Fold:
Amino acid sequence: MPEPCDLTTSLRPHVLIDARYAPKLRGGDRCRYELARFMAGQQEWNVSFLVYPHAVQQACAWHTGASPIIAPFTPDQHPQADWYEHVTLPRLARQAGVDLYHGTFQTLPLRSPAPITVVTIQDMAVFAFPQAYSPRFVRYMRLWLGATIRRATQIIAPTMATRSEIVRFYPEAEPRITVIMNGVGQEFLSAAELPEPRIADVCHRLCVPRPYVLFVGSLEAKKNHRRLVEAFHRARVAGSLPHTLVIAGERLDSVPDGGITEAGAGPLVHFTGYVPEGDLPALYRGADLVAYPSLYEGFGMPVLEAMAAGVPVLTSSISSMPEVAGEAGMLVDPCDVDAIAQGLYRALTDHSWRQFAVQAGRKRALSLTWSENGRKTVELYTELWNRHRRTVL
Structure:
């Protein structure tokens, strides 16, 4: 266990957390948001947040007296955002007397913003699955991510699979990597008890026909939509299943979508687009199965969210998905359409497996909460702070 942090006011470490989440919370944004919300309640730390303008009021509401640093540019605004990231932000952090800076999504500024730097690397997709992105983005992010890994005081990975990927490309980083798994929110755990009228209302507003198999995630090549759609059609015809496949997610201009189109998918596949976060728990709960045969993930949040909601899960037998699902998920080869189809049929018709999957999935989800994620992150901060103090005293 880390040594206890010295709680005297004069020695309270100043932590700056990158809480730049977008208004639409996707996977990485959710991780930033939840860690910031947890850290706002940690009185032994002097906490500041780096936020976008839309989140200033939220940051101040979380943490009375907080003085957030406002980032005026989004990552796609070049060259202003680059100058801010690598020059202005480190200067502001140093002026504020920041002791520990946590870059919560993949990267750190090239100029160090604090004596202690922590970075969360959610995945190594630009190295391990570069075909999911444009060549220009891959070149740019490989340089920046490599510089981050070499310079960070400590690296957080959300799974052992991601840790192994970091070590594969940067073996010298191994001693500086800590695995802290992502969590699941109470809204998904509570979804298991949602009343039927609430589920029916969400399905009606989203024009979702029931019964349905659900996929949640943005439309990008690594999500493996094309094989899932083909496998769904095979399983539905072979097994006379009454289900529709519902794909809940939006297209991102920044990444290839794998060629999946509403017209090409056929009438038995329903695209909802982006689903508001308030409706997502009910959409999970209404599904007979959540199918997530992704080709590569650093974690795979929909797997955990579905299990929390009490829904059986089919997912991939590769990358991080087996680690997240534990024994609760049905694992299939995501490159084998027949294997996915057979898995879909069994997952929808094997009632004894479905009962087991619901119970095991809930147990797994209850062990991976955002509070647990935050607690372990604070333990890491404490260890790093105490180590730093010993070197400077």
